[in-house]
Each structure stands twice: as C-alpha cells, then as structure tokens.
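Suppose a classmate hands you a notebook page containing two proteins, each written out with its sequence and a corresponding row of structure tokens. How would you begin to make sense of it? This section walks through that situation. The first entry is reproduced here exactly as it would appear on such a page.
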Amino acid sequence: MVVGSLPEEETDGPKVGLTIYLVKPEMVATFEHVVKKGRDVLPLKAPLNGEFIVFPPGARTAAWVDLVRSVLQDSSQLAELKSQSPGGLLIVRREKDTFVVSFTHAWQKLEDQWLESDFGLRVALNAIPPDKIVEIRAEQVFGNWHIASERAPRASFVDQFGVEFDRDLVATLDGVPANSPLFGKHVRGGTNMRVERSFSKLGDVLDKAATQFRSNAYKKRWPEIGNIKPVGDAGIIEKLDAKLDAEFEFGEAQKKLVLFTPAHRHGEELPLADGYVYGRISKNPEIRPYLLVGSWNDLLREQG
C-alpha cells in the first residue's frame, strides 16, 4: 500500500478566482443598507457569517448590434441579440472585519468611499518578495501624468521594472507569494486582492488577508513604497482641511506651507502656469515659481 497526500483539488475542491474587498469599519452600516435595499438577501451557513446579495440578470442589447444593423442591406436579418449576466456580492464577517467577494459585474455596485483603498496592495506587499514580481501597475503623479503597466514573462526582481518609487504611485502589484501558502501560487493586489483558491478555504484566506493588511512588515523590504498616496476619502479630506485651517489660525502654515504652480494633470488642456505674481500683474511682472504664505499675507496687509 502506498501512502501519500491527495492533490488539493481532490481534498479541498477545485480552485476558483476570488476577488475580495475590505469594507471600512465606519462604512459597514452604510454599505449594507445600500446594497441590501430591495434585493434578495440569502444568509450563509456556518462556519461563515454573512449574506449573499443577489443581482438578477437584466437583458440588454449590446451597443454594437445597432451599429452592425446600420450597415446591413436588410437589418431585419440580424435577430435580437441580448445578453444576460447575473451577479452577486458575498458579504463575510470575520471578527471585526467585513469582507466582500464579488461575482461577475456586481463589483460595480461598490462605491470607493466604502472600501479600504489599499487593502489588496498591502496584502500583496506583505506576501510577495521583491524578486517574485510578475506585474507592476503604477501612476506617475509628478510631472506629466500617466499610467504605466509592466508585466514580466516570469517572476522577476523589482529592479527589472521601470518604476521610480520616489515619483510613482504603485496601484497594483502581482506576483508569487513566499510566506502565504493560503494565497496559492499567485496573488494580485490593488484596492481588491485576487487569488485562486478552493472556496472551502475562503474563511482562512480572509483571516490571513486581514493579518497581512494590518502588518507593517512590508516596510522593511519595500521601504520605497507607500510613502505617498492620493487622498480621495471625503472624511480624511475634511480632517486635512480642518488641520490646514487650524495651522493658518495659529501661524504654523506660514512657517512651512509652500504653494507651487499647478502642473498638467491627466492630459487636460490648461493655460501654462509659469509662476505666481504678487499684487497686480504689471506689463513686466516679477514671476516666482512658488508662493510663500507669509509673503502673501504681507502683501495683503500692505494693501489694507
């Protein structure tokens, strides 16, 4: 008799692609109220705690059908072509975390403000070593804006990718996990995380992802990533604005705030901004590339 282990597909079930999001704790109530309202909500069985939200298919005609009909000699020969694609959101609660697993188009029902924007990226950074990178998707935010996506034919060292971490925001990281066998042979992380695992392992995968998301261990091997990131959360923006107002009120902004001329962003047409002019614009104004708050306040006082 030969004793051995069965392949994973035979013991845990076949692997499936899982697209997973993490809901911000303060947004869970809002998220659940919106996605559950007026829809079928099916409770999950133990050991999972949560619900499945059903998004039934809606028959619609593809946009290209009418275009094709317009060039046919007899448009009636092209039958009605409508597509239907059901979707769903699987809500799973694990202790203090609320995860969402999206199926087909249901991810479109999620709003950015509900989600931890760097959930998948932080999980990937903690799981993937620098020499096991398959793809990096980055956004250049200084200078002319653009998005770059590089993919290697095999797992490679990060230095082989043309990303400048002091200039670019890493949006997505794809590679081979080294210390997280629960994630399988591949993990992709951005706002969401994407893995291929047996569905029976979902709870374990979510628990491991929660641990990885909260870990700062990635900063030791990825010190260049995560030092800058855009702020899109309305709550954080409000807090930052309040902090800026307070620093103006107590004189701190005058010591350390510098305003630079705007740059072209996202390819939009903008008048070329060379610098700032204090006071009225004369025929030959003195242009400065940056505006010191103190100098601006001095001018306002001089002008009354």
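The notebook's second entry, a different protein, reads as follows.
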Amino acid sequence: MRIRDAYSSGSPVFSFEFFPPKTEKGAQNLMRTVSDLRDAVQPDFVSVTSGAGGSERQRTHEVVTRIQSDLGITVMAHQTCVGSSRDAIRESIARLVSAGIENVLALRGDAPSDPPTDGQASGISAQGFEHATDLIGFLADEFDVSIGAACYPESHPESSTPEDDLHWTKVKVERGAGFLISQLFFDNRDYFDFVGRCRAAGIEVPIVPGIMPITNVGQIERFTKMCGATIPDELGERLHAVEDDLGAVMATGIEHAITQCRELLERGAPGLHFYTLNKSHATRSILAAIRLLK
C-alpha cells in the first residue's frame, strides 16, 4: 500500500511509530508488540525509526521487512541523511525496495553534538545531504516510493521564524513529499493554525497530526524541550499535581489525548500518527476510546 493513497480514501488513517531494537531480544519484543497491536486495533501502517548504524541498522532493516512480510502490516521506513553518504542511502533504500517496502519518511536526523571538523555544515560530508529537502529530492529522482516528511506546528526549533519554517515545509512538498506528519503537540490550535497557514501557502498534501500520549512527566518535559513543543499550562498543572503517581499520570495523559484526537478527527484531520515509545498500551486505549465515541 502506498501511504499517500491511503490518505485519499476518505477514512481516517491510524498509524503507530516504533523505534528500532538494539538487540536481538529487543527485535523479538518489538515483533510481539506490533503483532499484539495488529490484533487489537488493526493499524493502517506502522513506521520504524532509523537505526544508528552497523548491526543496529541491519537489525532495523530486518525488523521492517519482517513486520510487513510476516505480520502483513504496511511499513514506512525512516531514512535520515545526517552522517550518511549518497551511496549508503542509495544502498539502504534499494534493499528496502527489493524487500517490498514502498514507503519512506525522509528526515535530516539529529545533527552531531560535536562541532564539524571538515568545514562542512552539521558535519555533512561532500558526498551526503545537509537537509531533508535534499534527501527528498534525491529519493524522488532515484526511487519509485511514497515519500513522507516531517512538519512542525510550533515551528522547527532551528527555524528563525515561522515563515522560514513554512518556506522549507513547502520546499519538501515541491521536491516530492506526498504527505506530512507533524511533530508532537498538545494544543490543537497549534495544529489547525499551522494547517491553515500551509493551505494559504499552497501546500495541499495531507498533514497528519502526531500524537504522543503522556505517561511520564519528566520524560515528556525532556522531549518537548528537545523538539520545541510546549505543554499547555492547564495540562502541565494537572500533570504535576499527580506526577508521583505513575498510574494517575498515565490516566491524565490518556484522557487529554482522547479529547485531543477526537477534536482533530471531527475537524477533518486525515488520520492520527501515534508516537508509541515502543509501548502500545496507552495508544491502544486511546484508539479504542476514539472508536467507541464515533
């Protein structure tokens, strides 16, 4: 299944993101988690983030292809470009395509924390790509795959202005991205305002809200700080009031996500993409509640 086509079906598309296993035992656990998720909620597709390299990247490739071939679930593989040459990226995608993977999420990836030593921005070699826009154009030229890209309702933390962020979002689409999946957010106004600005700028592809259920206060505060997202004051107060009770934190996070997701779908979002952190309980609870409320 081409994911871009799924968003044209008229029905909400539900998808789940997992990060790659670092060990063989982790790979087995991930396969079991995805299998349980398939049986419980029948996701339209799952995505797997990119392994760091070497044996971990090999294991990621194996899990991606096994999920699609053994479990029968459409998979979108993440491909980052920081620290990788064109030839390495070409080889990676060619292997995925030969295994039947038709969907790729094209990302820059995290820039190295150490200053570059070769004079190249962000430590990118002359044989690689510095930005996701470059990677998207390369994939569109070289492969027959459905390409997705990331977007940022509260702007990318490295963008100088919201207008600058919107400009590069449009470039991603112009170079071949057929759909956009958003960074996590907790105030739906940020998503709808962003979609409105995208449409005014001529961006017509599906813009999918990314949802991360809150299950740990310290963890979500670290995530939001890294990615430039914000937690609304009212939600933050509710979480801190129960932060020492993990069960209450999870209940609060699930309750907020259910309310958030229901409004997103009612107001026309093309689907929901859940950031699972490799734990399916919260997302399964949220999706079950949403379907009951329909």
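A careful reader of the second entry would note: The chain has one domain: 3-293.
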